[in-house]
Each structure stands twice: as C-alpha cells, then as structure tokens.
Amino acid sequence: MDFKPRKIKFKAWDVENKLLMRLNSIDCNKGELVKRDHILLQFTGLHDGEGEEIYELDVLMLSLEKFVVFWNEASNSWQIAPLKNMADAKPFLSDTAIKMKRFGSYYQLEN
Questions:
Q1: Which has the least CB within 10 A, 4, 43, 60, 100?
Q2: What is the domain range of residue 93?
C-alpha cells in the first residue's frame, strides 16, 4: 500500500484588517507555524456538499442551523457544534460534511 501524506493548507484571519485571506507564506519558528498578526486556520481535509474546502472555525449550515468546526485537543479530532450550543459537540466526519454548506468563517460573523 502506498501512503500519501495529507495536504496541509491554511487560511488566516488578519487581525488588524479583519479579513479572511489565503497566505503566500507562513513562518516556522521552532517547528510551530506562525504569521504575525494573523490567526492560522487549518484545512480539515473535508469538503462541503458543493465541494468547498472546510477550514478550522468555518461556520456551516445544515437546514437553517449554523455549526462551527474546531479542533478538540482532548479527543484529538475535528469536532462540530451548533453555534447556539457549543457544549453539544460531536466528531466531524466526511459523511456529515457533504450534507452541509459552508457559510463563512466564525471571525467574519463576529465583525
């Protein structure tokens, strides 16, 4: 069996200009990826029902309900939770992702 490494991609929230953007470069400091004045948002490896890439802290729609995607350190996995009830998180898997539509980033909703 041939193993293919997963593609590691990022978008970033520009804190100063309050814009979501794709990056041309990211700095690496002692093994940690950083971009000054930006919050890095990692690609989950999943796509929504329309083929859009889903990134960390993306807000997704299922019917009329909004959900947010995040990394859960305790379970070491991507999770999804309703925006109205973040305590109701569950694993975020491809069979769920394809039923949803990407709405935007959590940061875009906050501003």
A1: 4
A2: 10-110
Count CB atoms within 10 A of the CB of residue 45: 14
Residue type, 23: L
The three-state secondary structure class of 44 is strand
Residues of the chain with pLDDT under 50: none
User: Could you tell me the CATH number of the domain that includes residue 50?
Assistant: 2.30.30.290
In a domain, 2, yes or no: no
Determine the Cα–Cα distance for residues 111 and 108; give it in Å rounded to an integer. 6
Asked if residue 4 belongs to a domain, the reply is no
Output phi, psi for 68, to 5 deg: -120, 140
Number of Cβ atoms within 10 Å of the Cβ of 2 = 3
Tokens of 61: 């729609």
What's the domain count of the chain? 1
Confidence (pTM) = 0.91
Digit-coded pLDDT (tens) for 57-79: 999 999 999 999 999 999 999 99
